[in-house]
Amino acid sequence: MASLRCFLRSGKNAVSAVLRREFHRTPAAAVQVTVRDALNQAMDEELERDERVFLLGEEVAQYDGAYKVSRGLWKKYGDKRIIDTPITEMGFAGIAVGAAMAGLRPICEFMTFNFSMQAIDQVINSAAKTYYMSAGLQPVPIVFRGPNGASAGVAAQHSQCFAAWYGHCPGLKVVSPWSAEDAKGLLKAAIRDDNPVVVLENELMYGVPFELSDEAQSKDFVIPIGKAKIERQGKHITLVSHSRMVGLCLDAAAVLAKEGIECEVINMRTIRPLDTEAIETSVMKTNHLVTVEGGWPQFGVGAEILARIMEGPAFNFLDAPAVRVTGVDIPMPYAKILEDNSIPQIKDIIFSVKKTLNV
User: Fold this and answer.
1) pLDDT tens for residues 132-181?
2) Helix, strand counts (H, E) of the chain
3) Catalytic residue IDs
4) Which of 39, 249, 277, 324 gives 20 to 30 Å between its CA and that of 310?
5) pLDDT band for position 219 (cuts 50, 70, 90)
């Protein structure tokens, strides 16, 4: 396990360089902030704002975090606020939940959410259910955060997307940021929330720069949990996705626009509670729907969206069956060519859009 974790921390620069070109291009003069630095800013501002906030996890302090998301925080806030833990997710997640019950506001970092399986009893049975089981007497204001979904070349035990897993559970709020603005605004909102919030980041997005508005650079900037964002307006078909897949949808939409197909791209931002209204409104306008996610198809996020559309008023506006684009229903292969064919690519989105529109 230790060797696997060391492997996870290696080779990020080359991947980030490719992704900078693939996902986002902004003018040279624009103020750009990477997703990594946006998360760092969010934690720094909330640690400064509220002395009850603290960060704990593996290598978050002296090493500045496995992915350097907590860079500089230990030097600024010291051992009591930035706490290195042993490699025991069940242990430090339990400590964090207990601290939240005692009145603190912990940020519990998992080096990857694949390792959160070790602590899922603490996340679900202790954190998510306590407020309900105490009849509203005992809040648990805690954030569980870290990279989620497939990275590059880390194989099956490190490549699950847990959006559907945690989105399934009442008592949790679940957010899944894409851009630097998403990352900062959603993490700040999560830290301030009195409920347990799962923040599903993406390792492949950490080094990707985005333009950050003046508003988003403010210390008071938060993004309301439960509100989706339309990243691109369109009239022919709705694309709904979260996290890294938003970038692929935008790239696919740019290609399709050259052929006269205008896609409306919705960045979910929040998995639970789901902004069903935003999706319904878009479907009523475009009359077509494709969902895109990196997770497995069975009982997935896309499956939930399609069910809600079928059960709600937007169903009567559909001119074709709604379609899901998902990861393949297998454990993630290690070989790159197999890995590439196991998660959605731009060509897969384009194919599904054209099939749905019958063009």
Assistant:
1) 999 999 999 999 999 999 999 999 999 999 999 999 999 999 999 999 99
2) 14, 14
3) 89, 158
4) 249
5) very high
